Amino acid sequence: MNKKAVVYIRLKDGVLDPQGITIERAIHNMGFDMVSSVRSGKFFELEIAGESGQTEQKVDEICRKLLANPVIENFSVEYEK
Prior knowledge:
Elements: E1 2-11, H1 18-29, E2 41-49, H2 52-67, E3 73-80
Antiparallel strand pairs: 1-2, 1-3
């Protein structure tokens, strides 16, 4: 049975986020002063097939080895059917 793994990757707290800073400045320049901070991240959707326990372990491995840099990023995965 196929299901979807939705992967969210965010910079760890304390890691400089130049892209987020640039976006925050642009938001303020547009007149939206209510935004106090912007942090950027990444989003991936993976279509996966296989047994639930095995695929979850493999998706975790994919995230750790390829999609996220564990030194500066955290990731979370949500599964949809």
